């Protein structure tokens, strides 16, 4: 029996949509009543309340479609150790925030796990409260090993059966993505997606969002300093062709899509020097992001969700180091938060512009071609 298709008649809370609906618009190049070139939705992993607000401000500045992504560890952080409490809190906050928004927003569970007991609970909670979930079952997170195709397919299909009738889109993963994102999302192993398995996986699970592994990595060390990170573009196109033949509404997701902005690194290094904090200089110098030109090439081909976490964390940290280098004696949290908040908004705006995600719900409120991302505020 085929997997249930995504119910597109569900009404989510005001100004909220399934991630797939917004990403399909991007694949079809839909902005307002016009259809043009494909663009992508950066899915921003958000870990603080200010991050939610900053991302929404960036979406509204540009009239962008928004995806706010929350990993299990982010939810635990919001719930002070209790991921379900975090989920409930975020659900209420985003619902309230979206109601006041000029754009459409999706909430997405990143790297949900339908194999471990805790993960299964969180996925089920997210199906009730979010508009999209990832069922990352290519890895057995508790035992830190890759799962078999059958285990991955069965666990992912189970999520599709629960989520699709409720209008909640599901992202599957095939292949194992390397790198460290946070305490709950990391892997020392990596395997490329097998195109022969892909056909079976997509047909059996019915997922409309797929994260193939083509050489991207989570975290700030995606390759050797000085080298360009090379993605397996040939494999990406082979997989896209297979997916399109099955269902042209299947959209690919690039995990590990942080490019890491050189000016953010330079700004941190300059201010670490000012503060005389030399211990971390080498670490900052060795950060390597994913090559943007390659990601950009894939957007037009069907990778219309690009997961972005590390570069925004790095921007926040660099801005904070800069603010402290300027003065460390302001006994007022708001003084420092104002700086990190502005940096986050600009970091989000920068990536939305790079991805072509602006002018979707209304005209941008800034001149996009003149926008300059500058930490030195
Ligand atoms: P980065 O570490 O490149 O930001 O990737 C984040 C990600 O893929 C989240 O799922």
List the helices and strands and how they pair.
Blueprint: H1 19-27, E1 30-31, E2 34-35, E3 41-45, H2 49-62, E4 66-71, H3 72-78, H4 83-99, E5 105-112, H5 117-129, E6 132-135, E7 139-140, E8 145-146, H6 149-163, E9 169-174, E10 178-182, E11 185-187, H7 195-205, E12 209-212, E13 217-218, H8 233-246, E14 251-254, H9 262-275, H10 281-285, H11 292-301, E15 303-308, H12 310-326, H13 333-354
Helix pairs in contact: 2-13, 3-4, 4-5, 6-7, 7-8, 9-12, 12-13
Bound molecules: 1,3-dihydroxyacetonephosphate.
In CATH terms, what is the architecture?
Alpha-Beta Barrel
Instruction: Determine the CATH superfamily.
Output: Aldolase class I
Termini, distance in Å?
Answer: 58 Å
Shape: globular
Per DSSP E runs of 2 or more residues, the count of β-strands stands at: 15
**Which class of secondary structure composition applies to the elements?**
alpha/beta
- H/E element order: HEEEHEHHEHEEEHEEEHEEHEHHHEHH
Please bin the fraction of helical residues. 40-55%
Mean of the pLDDT scores? Answer: 94
How many domain regions? 1
Hetero groups in this structure are:
1,3-dihydroxyacetonephosphate
Beta-strand fraction estimate? 15-25%
Please give the order of strands in the largest beta sheet: 3-4-5-6-9-12-14-15
The helix tally amounts to 13
Q: Stretches where pLDDT falls below 50 for ≥5 residues?
A: none
């Amino acid at each position: 029996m085929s997997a249930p298709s995504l119910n597109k008649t569900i009404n989510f809370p005001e100004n909220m949509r399934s991630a797939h609906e917004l990403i399909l618009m991007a694949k079809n190049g839909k902005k307002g009543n016009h259809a043009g070139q494909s663009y992508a939705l950066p899915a921003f992993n958000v870990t603080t309340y200010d991050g939610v607000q900053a991302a929404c401000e960036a979406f509204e500045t540009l009239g962008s479609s928004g995806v706010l992504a929350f990993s299990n560890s982010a939810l635990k952080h919001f719930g002070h150790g209790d991921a379900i409490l975090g989920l409930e809190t975020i659900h209420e906050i985003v619902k309230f925030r979206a109601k006041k928004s000029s754009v459409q927003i999706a909430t997405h569970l990143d790297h949900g796990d339908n194999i471990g007991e805790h993960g299964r609970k969180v996925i089920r909670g997210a199906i009730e409260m979010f508009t999209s979930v990832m069922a990352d079952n290519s890895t057995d997170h508790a035992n830190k090993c890759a799962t078999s195709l059958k285990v991955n397919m069965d666990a992912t299909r189970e999520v599709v059966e629960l989520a699709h009738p409720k209008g909640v889109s599901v992202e599957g993963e095939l292949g194992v993505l390397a790198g460290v994102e946070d305490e709950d999302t990391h892997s020392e192993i990596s395997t490329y997606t097998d195109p022969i398995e892909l056909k079976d996986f997509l047909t059996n699970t019915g997922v409309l969002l797929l994260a193939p592994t083509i050489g991207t990595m989570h975290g700030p060390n995606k390759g050797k300093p000085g080298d360009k990170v090379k993605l397996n573009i040939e494999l990406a196109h082979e997989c896209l062709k297979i997916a399109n033949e099955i269902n042209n509404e299947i959209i690919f997701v690039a995990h590990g899509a942080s490019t890491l902005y050189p000016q953010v690194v330079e700004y941190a290094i300059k201010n670490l020097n000012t503060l005389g904090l030399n211990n971390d200089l080498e670490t900052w110098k060795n950060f390597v992001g994913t090559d943007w030109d390659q990601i950009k090439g894939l957007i037009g081909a069907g990778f219309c969700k690009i997961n972005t976490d590390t570069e925004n964390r790095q921007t926040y940290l660099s801005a904070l180091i800069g603010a402290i280098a300027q003065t460390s004696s302001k006994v007022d949290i708001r003084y420092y938060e104002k700086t990190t908040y502005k940096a986050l908004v600009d970091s989000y705006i920068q990536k939305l512009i790079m991805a072509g995600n602006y002018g979707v719900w209304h005209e941008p409120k800034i001149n996009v071609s003149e926008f300059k991302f500058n930490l030195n505020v």
